[in-house]
Specification:
Layout (H helix, E strand, L loop, with lengths): L1 E3 L11 E5 L4 H5 L2 H10 L4 E6 L16 E4 L9 H12 L5 E4 L5 H9 L3 E5 L10 H7 L21 H10 L2 H4 L4 E5 L11 H15 L2 E5 L5 H10 L5 E2 L6 H9 L3 E5 L2 H8 L3 E5 L5 H4 L7 E3 L21 H4 L3 H15 L1
Parallel strand pairs: 1-6, 2-3, 2-5, 3-4, 5-6, 7-8, 7-10, 8-9, 10-11, 11-12
Helix pairs in contact: 3-4, 6-10, 8-9, 8-14, 10-11
Length: 345
């Protein structure tokens, strides 16, 4: 049978654990403190994780807290009944005694949970009436195991492979860039209402290159090639354009070589914090208290005087102005960047 655990029940022991977390980059990195806390609390347990896409498996493949990385791609690899059934049997054969379901709203995920029969289940509940960061929210799910969110380390983790660091060294040879500070500009986001304009990024890159002698790197996924083209066509000082050319861990290795990332609320912002790179987060629609950068030394720029900030929506009702993002000026971002770099010296 499936046993659902009450949040007040403590000190549960488990030997074989499956964590289910389909989601985007930031969502996955937000559970890395929970993985660390779980392994510290149950050091002898075998912990597997199931993510939602083949491309995000690399985020955990070098993580020492994880034994095995599975993926469930309901719209791709596992769209057919035969593929889903094969995955179901794969889960069933592992004999998990605990499943932690961080994706409680999907029917097929629940079918995979049932494949672990008989097992116990912990279920994530997203906060609706409290303002709490996603990291803390995920850690709260582990309370029945005796893990206290107040005692947990909130810092995100991303473990890189040697091939990732080799890729970064080939793209950004130290000898080729000298002592220039490297600053990455992340152009896109899962929803473009969270994006700063390409023209603003181009002006910012020119400012930082001219005033600080910085090397500017453009990053982003394949869906942001159009944004990169606009920046490259507008910028006077041409950045190194790596948009659409990297895996997630290769991107992490590139960000690790940078002094600073400027980004909207999206996955690469959290990749940067996970590898120890400071960020300037540009926030408009989304509340940074929920998904802002984790750790010290980061800066969030937003304009809460705009009446609708934060709307936490996926669609702007004030287009084409998108005032929450256009109100963020190149001057205030450049000023913040210079201050952060000078503080480090």
């Amino acid at each position: 049978m499936l046993t659902f655990l009450d949040r007040g029940r403590m000190n549960l022991k488990a030997e074989r654990i499956l964590i289910i977390k389909p989601g985007a980059i930031g969502d996955l990195l937000h559970i890395s403190p929970a993985l660390r806390a779980l392994k510290e609390h149950l050091p002898d347990a075998h912990v597997d994780i199931m993510v939602g896409a083949r491309g995000t498996k690399c985020l955990f493949e070098h993580n020492p807290h994880i034994r095995r990385v599975l993926h469930f791609d309901r719209k791709g690899d596992h769209r057919s009944l035969s593929a889903f059934t094969a995955l179901w049997h794969e889960v069933h054969n592992e004999n998990y005694d605990l499943v932690i379901n961080f994706q409680r709203s999907t029917l097929k995920v629940w079918l995979l949970v049932m494949a672990a029969f008989p097992c116990r289940v912990l279920v994530y509940h997203k906060t609706r009436h409290r303002r709490v960061h996603a990291v803390a929210n995920h850690l709260e799910t582990l309370a029945p195991l005796g893990i206290n969110v107040k005692d947990a380390d909130f810092n995100l983790e991303l473990y890189l492979g040697e091939d990732d660091t080799q890729f970064a060294s080939e793209q950004i040879p130290i000898t080729g860039r000298g002592e220039k500070p490297l600053i990455a500009l992340n152009l896109g986001a899962s929803n473009r209402i969270k994006c700063w304009s390409p023209q603003s990024f181009a002006q910012l890159g020119d400012r930082l290159a001219g005033e600080l002698g910085a090397g500017i790197i453009l990053i982003g996924g394949p869906d942001e090639l159009d944004l990169a083209e606009l920046v490259m066509n507008t910028a006077r000082v041409k950045p190194l354009n790596l948009v659409g050319k990297m895996s997630l861990t290769q991107l992490g290795a590139v960000l690790q070589r940078c002094k600073l990332l400027v980004s909207g609320d999206t996955g690469p912002l959290h990749l940067a914090t996970a590898v120890g790179t400071r960020v300037i987060g540009l926030f408009g629609a989304i509340d940074p208290e929920r998904t802002g950068p984790v750790g010290s030394g980061h800066v969030v720029i937003r304009h809460p005087e705009v009446p609708c900030v934060p709307c936490n929506g996926k669609k702007c009702h004030h287009l084409p102005s998108l005032e929450c993002m256009t109100r963020i000026s190149v001057d205030e971002v450049a000023t913040a960047a210079k201050k952060m770099l000078f503080e480090e010296q």
